[in-house]
Design brief:
Layout lengths: L21 H5 L15 E7 L5 E7 L1 H5 L3 E6 H5 L5 E3 L5 E3 L5 E2 L5 E7 L2 H10 L1 E6 L28 E8 L1 H10 L2 E12 L8 E7 L4 E6 L4 H12 L9 E4 L15 H13 L3 E4 L2 H6 L3 E12 L5 E11 L28 E9 L16 H19 L3 H8 L8 E2 L5 E2 L4 H12 L1 H13 L3 E10 L11 E2 L2 E2 L2 E7 L5 E5 L8 H13 L6 E5 L16 H28 L6 E4 L2 E4 L2 E7 H10 L10 E6 L8 E10 L6 E11 L6 H21 L29 E5 L17 H18 L13 H14 L1
Parallel strand pairs: 1-14, 12-13, 16-17, 24-25, 31-32
Antiparallel strand pairs: 1-7, 2-6, 2-8, 3-7, 4-5, 9-17, 10-15, 11-12, 11-14, 15-16, 18-19, 20-30, 21-22, 23-24, 23-29, 26-27, 27-28, 30-31
Bound molecules: ligand PCD.
Ligand PCD binds next to helix 13, helix 14 and helix 16.
């Protein structure tokens, strides 16, 4: 159990204080990119391709330019004059900013209209006349590798087919041998479909170039403003946009979820337009543009899990085909083309594993965004958790029991996983037991047996996941070469109030509150006296940003260590004020006192004042500290989720009766915020499990490109989430904390899928891919009945 060291007024770790930022958000006072209005600001609207694959024969701007208020139509040819028509992706592939000859997916940017207002820009976009010659698109990733498949990326030197890369980890031969020798092997091809990051706020930018100062000010919906500044300087340095001249401000963000990590063509076009025209240019993506032009997941995974006949897991093998669309713009660290997919061995202890992946180009939107997932952890967890359930069903063992028998044990941490991770800590048994107690597992098992006897379909699904978050140690983790540390800078003012700045950027997570709580914990300054500032590259220390549940593991740690530096300096000042030697000073949250004479003390506020007014001779004045934190390892949050469903045989309707989520993210800064994170994340977990999936036809048209057709679950679809936690502190994090925000989105889909498939098992249905919709269930029931 965690015991709070501070009073609720100070609000250090463990206090469920209300979010400071909510006063602003709940009163509609948030300031988002679209709220930025600059004098003389122009508006941009993008003309997009109706075809998935086509030659551009001509772009006629005339009619558009004739409209009063339309100032420019920017094409790929225009950008090519400045060599700005292509840009690198985060994984060193190349992506068109605007095409000069070919469009590669439906809705790709073709050209952009700049006008005095948005309505005029929309009219202008409609008036642009583009002639295309459509070509046969490659939609099915398996066909992308056929010999007669057209080469989609002839622009890439040495590219002979549509294969992007092969990746593998582990021991193929030993794993194959273990599988060949095993008593039981279960196999399945599992697809995690393309889904969409449906944040409330779409992407957007206001770029404002000042020709006099040569400064480029950019308001951007970005989870990683510093990294984007550097990338922009690398891409556009040759036209004069060098890094010290670029200032990116990420204002309030209405949800990021990984979708606001990449650089999108629209950003670059708006920036280029402002640079060329010398006026501010705003581009705000509309809802459908947002839905169709990126994606997450899209992994086809062939899994094999081998075990002894009584269920001791021996080996896991997974071969994946990844559909990356027309360019590999996955948001992964440089050395990890498949992200952290190698966490796929899960929470279980066995020796042999092998994972491989081939990525291919198709005529679809690029993306591979780490949608609430620390780079492909969702895919990995789905694979192993579905397979463990399949194994349990195959050998007729209770899936909870099978998990208990295979868990990595508490005393085995740090645990070296077969694919190369060092799991930091966990107590999987305790976590699953807690979930089972909370839901009443044994009673549900009885009820299920009774219902089955009456021919009713009821299912219980478990997921016991291990995540890997907090990228990451600089020896392994970088994005385009920039190491993945993060930073905190604290200034304590003379009156004892403070300002702290970070290299991360909240998008709704509550950093303004939780970072202040970390500092309150370490310094004893009340969290309400500490302002938190993020997202402005001119003022914040350099950092890699907020995604991959990394803010707590990296910047949160940086805050604690910077605060400890301050405490060390404060000790010297306290000794000076109390006229004793430094060795005689002790610290207790919020104050220094003389050893053995606690009545002789100075508060942190006294000390801060003295740092400016009465510091020891020779000491550097001021009370500030900065720390750049390079984590020694990642953190491995984990959890046990249990879901109970009933399925109606006549209609395929699925009713989620109960859902219990027990999470272990180590020590918790703010339990209420964590609970909120879990609630939101579980809803984003039921989404792909039961509702979401981007559907293409054979021509590469997106069939559900609006929120009328793409069902994002709301409160109506969401069950009542029941949450709880266990605490196994991270041994290497200064606060013992682990990241948590993505766990629920990773853990929920397999728990729900396992529950639904368990319900259908008596009919002989052994697997369904998500989203498991009523019509998919109904179809499967008809097929199963026809077979019976
Ligand atoms: N926490 C606490 N404790 C612990 C942990 C944590 O308290 N132990 C808390 C903190 O402080 C914060 C939160 O919680 O506030 C979170 O955290 P983390 O886990 O660290 O994370 P971050 O980094 O901060 O964040 C990020 C995440 C992600 S990743 C995502 S997707 C999502 C989530 O976050 N997003 C979002 N959540 C959210 N929320 C909101 N509201 N919004 C958003 O947008 Mo990616 O990679 O990007 O895909």
């Amino acid at each position: 159990m965690f015991k709070c060291k501070t009073s609720p007024e100070v609000g250090g770790m463990g206090h469920s204080v209300k979010r400071k930022e909510d006063a602003r958000f709940l009163h509609g006072k948030g300031k988002y990119t679209d709220d930025v209005k600059l004098p003389g600001m122009l508006h941009m609207v993008i003309v997009r391709s109706p075809y998935a694959y086509a030659k551009i024969l001509s772009i006629n701007k005339e009619k558009a330019l004739a409209i009063d208020g339309v100032l420019a139509v920017i094409t790929g040819e225009d950008l090519a004059q400045y060599n700005l028509h292509w840009m690198p992706t985060l994984l060193s592939d190349s992506q068109m900013v605007l095409p000069t000859d070919t469009v590669m997916h439906q809705s790709q940017e073709v050209c952009a209209v700049i006008a005095t207002d948005r309505y005029i820009a929309v009219d202008g976009a409609e008036a642009v006349d583009v002639q295309y010659e459509p070509m046969k698109a490659i939609v099915n990733p398996f066909k992308a590798l056929d010999e007669d498949a057209p080469l989609l990326r002839p622009d890439k030197e040495g590219q002979k087919d549509n294969h992007i890369y092969h990746w593998e980890r582990g021991e193929r031969e030993k794993t194959d041998a273990a599988i060949a020798a095993a008593d039981v092997v279960v196999k399945e091809r599992i697809h995690l479909p393309r889904i969409h990051v449906a944040s409330i706020e779409t992407c957007g930018v206001v770029a404002s170039y000042d020709k006099d100062t040569e400064k480029m000010l950019i308001y951007l919906t970005s989870q990683a403003p510093h990294a984007i500044r550097t990338i922009l300087a690398l891409v556009a340095g040759h036209v004069g946009l060098s890094e010290e001249k670029i200032r990116i401000i990420a204002p309030d963000i209405g949800g990021g979820f990984g979708g606001k990590v990449p650089v999108y063509p629209g950003y670059v076009i708006a920036i280029a337009a402002s640079f060329l025209i010398g006026k501010p240019v705003k581009w705000i993506e509309d809802r459908s543009e947002n839905l169709v032009n990126g994606f997450a997941r899209d992994y086809h995974m062939d899994c094999e899990l081998a075990a002894t006949k009584d269920g001791k897991i021996q080996a896991f093998k997974v071969s994946t085909l990844a559909d990356h669309g027309y360019t590999d713009s996955s948001a992964n660290p440089s050395k990890y083309p498949t992200g952290m997919f190698s966490i796929c061995t899960g929470s279980y202890d066995y020796e042999h594993a092998f994972a491989e992946l081939d990525a291919v180009y198709t005529n679809k939107a690029p993306g591979g965004v780490a949608y609430r997932c620390s780079f492909r952890v969702t895919e990995a967890v789905h694979a192993i958790e579905r397979m463990v359930d399949k194994l349990a069903a195959e050998i007729g063992k209770d899936p909870a029991q099978l998990r208990f028998e295979n868990f990595i044990k508490k005393e085995d941490f740090p645990y070296a996983s077969p694919l190369g991770w060092s799991y930091d800590s966990g107590d999987y048994k305790q976590t699953l037991e807690k979930a089972m107690d909370m839901i009443g597992y044994a009673d549900y098992k009885k009820e299920q047996a009774e219902k089955r006897a009456q021919g009713k379909l009821m299912g219980i699904g478990i997921c016991t996941f291990t995540e890997v978050v907090g990228a990451g140690p600089s020896k392994d983790f970088d994005i385009l070469g920039i190491k993945m540390f993060d930073s905190a800078e604290i200034r304590v003012h003379p009156t004892g109030k403070a300002l702290a700045r970070f290299g991360t950027k909240s998008q709704g997570q509550g950093h303004e509150t939780t970072y202040a709580q970390i500092l309150a914990e370490e310094l004893g300054i009340p969290y309400t006296d500490i302002e938190i500032d993020e997202g402005d590259t001119d003022t914040a220390p350099y950092g890699l940003g907020t995604y991959a549940s990394r803010s707590t593991p990296t910047a949160g740690a940086a805050a604690a260590i910077a605060a400890r530096k301050l405490r060390d300096k404060g000790k010297k000042i306290a000794a000076h004020l109390l006229e004793v030697s430094e060795e005689d000073i002790e610290w207790e949250v919020g104050k220094y006192f003389v050893k053995g004479a606690p009545e002789k003390s100075k508060t942190i506020q006294d000390v801060a004042f003295a740092a400016y007014t009465n510091f020891p001779e020779g000491m550097e004045p001021g009370f500030e500290a900065t720390h750049y934190y390079d984590p020694p390892n990642l953190t491995f949050p984990n959890g046990a989720y249990i879901c109970v469903v009933e399925v109606e045989e006549e209609t395929g309707a699925i009713d989620v009766k109960r859902f219990v989520a027990i999470d272990d993210c180590g020590n918790i800064i703010n339990p209420m915020i964590v609970e909120g994170q879990i609630h939101g994340g579980l809803t984003q977990g039921i989404a792909p499990a039961m509702y979401e999936g981007i559907v293409y036809d054979d021509e590469g048209n997106v069939l559900n490109g609006t929120l009328m057709d793409y069902l994002v679950p709301t409160a109506v679809e969401s069950p009542h989430w029941e949450t709880g936690h266990t605490i196994t502190p991270s041994p290497h994090h200064p606060l013992g904390a682990k990241g948590v925000a993505e766990s629920p989105t990773v853990g929920a889909p397999p728990a729900i899928a396992n529950a639904i498939i368990d319900a259908l098992y008596p009919l002989g249905i052994k697997h369904l891919d998500i989203p498991i919709t009523p019509d998919k269930v109904w179809d499967a029931i008809q097929v199963a009945k026809a077979k019976a």
